[in-house]
């Protein structure tokens, strides 16, 4: 049973791959995040991961099953073949990843929603003209350590302009902290996508609740 996209799914959006939780099993980490109340999970296993394709597929299957049991959408980063193999609920694509039109075509009729990273007004304007995009990921809002090739920081003022320009909901990414949630919510963003806010959290339950509450309107 796939999860149908709606903007509320973006409120507390957890992103992680095995490279983000060194010394831990991502299954255990995800179980903790699901129990805390995350609203979406993106499996983002990058080139820095030490997993073989077979291990990545096996891990993905387990993570997919965990999300399905919790009725939380399971989203795959960038890899259409992996998303299809895992029967993912969604796929997220960056500007430099597989071309967005090809991704939309590949998942057509599969009940898979599509997210696209956009960090400039020009990218949002281009995305507005493409049918089949369900949400945008915009940022980095603040400096981030989890993406070596991150775009220049846009800040909350820049985010507000991107949100106003976009025809679909926007999830804010990059350097998000609990203290910054109110200012991000004021931009009209639908939620935040985070890695370190939760993987480095001392209180996952409280921090997840803060995200859900900030974007509950």
TrEMBL record:
Keywords tagged on the record: Magnesium, Metal-binding, Thiamine biosynthesis, Transferase
GO cellular component: cytoplasm
Gene assigned in the entry: thiE
PANTHER family reported for this sequence: THIAMINE-PHOSPHATE PYROPHOSPHORYLASE, THIAMINE-PHOSPHATE SYNTHASE
Function of the protein: Condenses 4-methyl-5-(beta-hydroxyethyl)thiazole monophosphate (THZ-P) and 2-methyl-4-amino-5-hydroxymethyl pyrimidine pyrophosphate (HMP-PP) to form thiamine monophosphate (TMP).
GO molecular-function term, one example from the UniProt record: magnesium ion binding
Ligand binding (4-amino-2-methyl-5-(diphosphooxymethyl)pyrimidine): 42-46, 77, 117, 147
Enzyme Commission designation: 2.5.1.3
Top-tier EC class: transferase
Record protein name field: Thiamine-phosphate synthase
């Amino acid at each position: 049973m796939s999860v149908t996209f709606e903007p509320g799914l973006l409120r507390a959006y957890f992103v992680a791959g095995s490279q983000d939780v060194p010394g831990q099993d991502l299954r255990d980490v995800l179980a903790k995040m699901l129990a805390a109340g995350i609203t979406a999970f993106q499996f983002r296993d990058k080139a820095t991961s030490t997993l073989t394709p077979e291990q990545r597929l096996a891990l993905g299957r387990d993570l997919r099953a965990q999300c399905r049991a919790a009725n939380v959408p399971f989203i795959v980063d960038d890899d259409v073949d992996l998303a299809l193999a895992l029967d993912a609920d969604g796929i997220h694509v960056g500007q430099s990843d597989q071309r967005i039109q090809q991704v939309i075509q590949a998942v057509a009729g599969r009940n898979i929603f599509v997210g696209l990273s956009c960090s400039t007004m020009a990218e949002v304007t281009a995305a507005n003209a493409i049918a089949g995009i369900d949400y945008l990921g915009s940022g980095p809002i603040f400096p981030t350590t989890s993406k070596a090739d991150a775009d220049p920081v846009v800040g909350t003022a820049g985010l507000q302009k991107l949100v106003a320009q976009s025809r679909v909901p926007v999830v804010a990414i990059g350097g998000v902290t609990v203290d910054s949630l109110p200012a991000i919510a004021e931009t009209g963003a639908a939620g935040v996508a985070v890695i370190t806010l939760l993987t480095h959290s001392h209180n996952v339950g409280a921090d997840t609740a803060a995200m859900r509450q900030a974007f509950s309107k």
